[in-house]
């Protein structure tokens, strides 16, 4: 069962730098779907468009970003809604209740002059009908305790909490209305390793408690291996591979995925780790054909000429690469 | 009592140290300059063509030295100066001899403080509110107009603006009185007439201070709000659909106020100087006019007194703002 | 040069640049002045603007236009000296405090804060009144420079503090570079833009001070500056006598200078602040 789908979705940044028009193709013709009750990991180097994809999924499109083509579908109770075709005042009700957002761990996301409890009230009040103060308070306390946080954090100011604690509070803030979909953008970046574990654990707990969907973006393949049920690999604004976590790690197909996985350290393996040669292309001037071909050791003439389709080559295993199109595995 | 120990006491010490540094500057500047006030005073007479025999010149020098506290070694003078300063005793004024400087300042200070306190607070509040909205909605038409006006008025020195107002309302449209703080020879009583007269006389000086002040705070606040607006906590609250009104007041303005308050504290010294010039221009009976007279008549004691009192008044105001600050910013409470 | 061309794309900078150019031309015209500005009664008195005297004459028999050229030159010179002197002090204090830290930082910052809080204007007046006889444009520039550095020293210090946290400083220290070479090679290039943008603000403050001190009568009235010009016209009752050209000329030209310097500083600081630049690009 899907909860979110995109269809031929393209979103570009339209920039005008001193009279020169620049188009940054951050999300380029993506069709992908996210299931109910799963943790979906999106991986890729920085600048591959993963954060932009999240923005588009969450309906946060502001100039210079623009939806150029395609649609995003929110599916709830077997009804699907194309969010960008819905009038603005009707979109509001999906935020936080249907889909919510956990920002980067390093960000300064809590208002420094407001107590945590006040921030909770600010976020909760506009999203529910009933605004009886004591009920509101009870609901917040209950939620905080459910996530294993102490009641006292509500009386604190953000600066009195540690970085990890702040991130847990942010997660609690994002999940207060038990949304069906939680988008997490690098939630563990800039946290130390021990704190990272705690934050990952809390996300996992939430998912198993509420049976909802978490779309987790991080460049850390280790985190993906630990929590994700399925993984999608992005490169230059497109998905290049998608499969169950175990499948991706055991049998990566796309050359880029192979590089990503080979670069991970492994026990008992003393070989030098290889990363993909070169650096990701600028999204404003992509190479012709498959965007990966300049860095690909298997590049063929075909790769320079046209871009491969994103097709299913095995059950639940999709890849966009000329090496596998039309070939039986 | 963490507050007293970690916040109040260090600030109290700084407060007294700043006054001490300022007073020390006031003491040493005249003494390290190549021309000393006594010589200058004598020179005034000789240039005016007054003949004095050497004996009376010598007498005069010693009298003046005594009057100005220039007798004895530098250390003795300094000690003496500090003792007199602690009693706010600056000796007699020359310009209105033998009225003590203290009395003259006591007469002028309320006028200046009254004018300054009201205009500073008013312009700070108006400027911050306008600037707050302008920073939040930078594409509105009125914002662009106010921006343009601010761009012209803001960089003007107080004197030029005050002079322009004087020309405009004193000569071209003579609506408001351009001189003094009250009708000449009038007696101030607690009645409506007195209050109206005071307000009428204060109007032009106040307007000039308000105009510049408001635009300074307007621009400051606008810039801060534009920065705060792109802070993560504001964006995140927007994502969650927190109502705009709440975001504007509790997230943007509330945080933007903090640097604005620090700015107020730091700019008080400048504003005070501005007010002095405004007073001179409109002959308002405050410290500015007193300063002008002191300079004009070469009244050294009076000048020292005005300088010292200004230092005390300003540092005290800054200190008070500093003490109020932790009420607004939870982060500094126990630092 | 590239920076300059980029800046010229900003209309505010363009306007400011044209005004400054005009003022510089005026200053250089002093070399061709037919009259000595310190002499009185060289032309007829109190004449309104006409062809021979395009900005009229004063009641002391001076040509307003030619006095103006000297006034603009002297006022700009004073403010430039003040700006350079205060830049040197601000750089020294800011770098020393930011780089050394500890007790030196605490003492220097206390001094800086004192200079920020104390009403310097009255102290400058005290200073200028006593030293009035020796006041010329150079001494006035130095005096204003000696008092106008505090805010910028703070700015420099915070910049140095953030530079000190950066990796290249650690690399330099670990690879054995001495303090002086770190400061000169690594920091000065980052501080130069800051020096320029604060210089303009400081110059505008210095011109304002010069005018104020002249009006107050604590500056040498023999030297033509925008302030003394204004002071002469006011004290000669030009306002009451209707000699508008005499009053308006210094007023208009001081406003021109202030607006130009202000526009320039806004434009430059926006150019230097990457965040503001990005906003501009995003909006376009």
CATH class of the domain at 103-286 in chain B: Mainly Alpha
Q: What is the beta-strand fraction of chain B?
A: under 5%
Secondary structure tally: strands of chain B: 0
Give the C-alpha Rg of chain A. 21 Å
Number of strands of chain A: 12
Oligomer: heterotrimer
Most extensive interface between two protein chains, with residue counts: B-C, 55 and 46 residues
Determine the N-to-C terminus distance of chain B.
Answer: 13 Å
* CATH homologous superfamily caption of the largest domain in chain A: P-loop containing nucleotide triphosphate hydrolases
Number of helical segments with 4 or more residues of chain A: 10
Largest beta sheet of chain B, briefly? none
Low-confidence stretches of chain A: none
Largest sheet of chain A: 8 strands, mixed
Helix and strand sequence of chain A: EEEHEEHEHHHEHEHEEHHHEE
Strand content of chain A: 25-35%
CATH topology name of the domain at 103-286 in chain B:
MetI-like fold
Shape of chain B: globular
User: What number of structural domains do the residues of chain A give?
Assistant: 2
Q: Which architecture of the largest domain in chain A would the CATH scheme give at its second level?
A: 3-Layer(aba) Sandwich
> What fraction, in percent, of the residue positions of chain B are helical?
over 70%
GO cellular component, one term (chain B): plasma membrane
Membrane topology (chain B): Multi-pass membrane protein
GO biological process, one term (chain B): transmembrane transport
Protein name (chain B): ABC transporter permease
């Amino acid at each position: 069962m899907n909860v979110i789908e995109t269809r031929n979705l393209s979103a570009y940044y339209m920039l005008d730098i001193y009279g020169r028009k620049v188009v940054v193709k951050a999300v380029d013709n993506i069709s992908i779907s996210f299931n109910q009750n799963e943790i979906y990991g999106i991986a890729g180097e920085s600048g591959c468009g993963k954060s932009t994809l999240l923005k588009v999924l969450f309906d946060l499109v502001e100039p210079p970003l623009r939806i150029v083509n395609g649609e995003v579908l929110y599916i709830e109770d077997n009804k699907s809604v194309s969010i960008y075709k819905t009038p603005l005042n009707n979109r509001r009700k999906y935020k936080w209740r249907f889909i919510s957002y956990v920002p980067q761990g390093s960000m300064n996301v809590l208002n420094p002059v407001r107590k945590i409890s006040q921030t909770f009230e600010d976020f909760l009040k506009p999203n529910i009908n009933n605004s009886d103060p004591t009920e509101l308070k009870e609901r917040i306390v209950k939620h905080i305790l459910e996530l294993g946080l102490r009641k006292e954090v509500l009386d604190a100011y953000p600066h009195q909490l540690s970085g990890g604690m702040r991130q847990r509070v942010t997660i609690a803030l994002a999940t207060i209305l038990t949304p069906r979909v939680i988008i997490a953008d690098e939630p563990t970046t800039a946290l130390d390793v021990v704190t990272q574990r705690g934050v990952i654990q809390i996300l996992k707990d939430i998912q198993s408690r509420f049976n909802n969907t978490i779309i987790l973006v991080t460049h850390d393949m280790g985190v993906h291996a630990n929590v994700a049920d399925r993984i999608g690999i992005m490169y230059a604004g497109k998905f290049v591979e998608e499969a169950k976590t175990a499948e991706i790690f055991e049998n990566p197909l796309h050359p880029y995925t192979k590089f990503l996985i080979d670069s991970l350290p492994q026990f008992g393996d003393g070989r030098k780790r290889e990363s993909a040669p070169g650096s990701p292309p600028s999204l404003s001037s992509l190479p012709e054909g498959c965007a990966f071909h300049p860095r690909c050791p298997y590049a063929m003439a075909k790769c320079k000429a046209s871009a491969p389709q994103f097709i299913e080559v095995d059950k639940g295993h999709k890849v966009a690469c000329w090496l596998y199109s039309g070939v039986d595995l | 009592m963490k507050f007293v120990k970690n916040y109040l006491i260090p600030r109290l010490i700084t407060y007294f140290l700043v006054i001490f540094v300022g007073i020390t500057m006031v003491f040493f500047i005249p003494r390290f300059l190549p021309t000393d006030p006594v010589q200058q005073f004598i020179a005034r007479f000789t240039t005016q063509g007054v003949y004095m025999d050497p004996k009376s010149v010598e007498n005069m020098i010693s009298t003046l030295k005594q009057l100005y506290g220039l007798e004895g070694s530098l250390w003795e003078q300094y000690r003496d100066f500090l003792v007199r300063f602690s009693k706010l005793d600056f000796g007699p004024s020359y310009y209105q001899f033998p009225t003590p400087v203290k009395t003259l300042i006591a007469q002028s200070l309320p006028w200046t403080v009254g004018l300054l306190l009201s205009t500073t607070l008013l312009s700070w509040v108006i400027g911050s509110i306008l600037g707050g909205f302008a920073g939040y909605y930078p594409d509105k038409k009125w914002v662009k107009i106010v921006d343009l006006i601010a761009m012209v008025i803001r960089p003007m020195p107080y004197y030029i603006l005050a002079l322009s107002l004087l020309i405009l309302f004193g000569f071209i449209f003579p609506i408001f009185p351009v001189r003094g703080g009250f009708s000449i020879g009038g007696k101030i009583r607690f009645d409506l007439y007195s209050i109206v007269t005071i307000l009428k006389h204060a109007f032009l000086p106040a307007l000039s201070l308000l105009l510049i002040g408001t635009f300074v705070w307007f621009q400051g606040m606008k810039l801060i709000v534009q920065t705060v607006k792109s802070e993560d906590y504001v964006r995140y609250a927007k994502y969650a659909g927190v109502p705009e009104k709440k975001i504007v007041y509790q997230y943007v303005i509330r945080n933007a106020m903090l640097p604005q308050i620090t700015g107020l504290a730091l700019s008080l010294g400048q504003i005070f100087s501005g007010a002095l010039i405004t007073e001179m221009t409109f002959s308002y009976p405050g410290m500015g006019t007193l300063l002008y007279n002191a300079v004009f008549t070469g009244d050294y004691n009076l000048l020292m007194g005005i300088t010292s009192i200004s230092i005390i008044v300003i540092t005290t105001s800054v200190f008070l703002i500093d003490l109020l600050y932790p009420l607004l910013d939870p982060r500094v409470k126990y630092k | 040069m590239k920076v300059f061309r980029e800046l010229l794309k900003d209309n505010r900078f363009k306007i400011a640049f044209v005004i400054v150019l005009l003022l510089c031309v005026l200053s250089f015209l002093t070399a061709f002045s037919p009259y000595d500005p310190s002499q009185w009664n060289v032309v007829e008195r109190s004449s309104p603007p006409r062809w021979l005297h395009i900005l009229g004459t004063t009641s002391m028999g001076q040509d307003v236009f030619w006095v103006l050229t000297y006034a603009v030159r002297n006022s700009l010179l004073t403010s430039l000296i003040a700006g350079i002197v205060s830049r040197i002090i601000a750089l020294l204090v800011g770098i020393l405090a930011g780089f050394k830290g500890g007790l030196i930082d605490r003492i220097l910052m206390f001094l800086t804060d004192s200079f920020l809080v104390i009403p310097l204007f009255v102290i400058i007046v005290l200073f200028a009144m006593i030293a009035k006889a020796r006041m010329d444009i150079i001494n006035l520039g130095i005096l204003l420079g000696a008092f106008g550095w505090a805010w910028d020293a703070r700015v420099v210090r915070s910049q140095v503090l953030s530079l000190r946290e950066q990796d290249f400083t650690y690399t330099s220290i670990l690879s054995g570079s001495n303090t002086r070479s770190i400061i000169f090679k690594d920091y000065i290039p980052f501080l130069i833009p800051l020096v320029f943008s604060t210089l303009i603000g400081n110059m505008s403050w210095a011109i304002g001070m010069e005018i104020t001190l002249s009006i107050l009568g604590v500056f040498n009235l023999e030297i033509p500056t925008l302030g003394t010009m204004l002071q002469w016209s006011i004290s000669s009752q030009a306002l009451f006598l209707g000699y508008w050209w005499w009053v308006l000329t210094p007023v208009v030209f001081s406003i021109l200078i202030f607006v130009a310097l202000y526009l320039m500083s806004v434009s430059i600081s926006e150019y230097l602040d990457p965040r503001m630049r990005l906003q501009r690009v995003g909006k376009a």
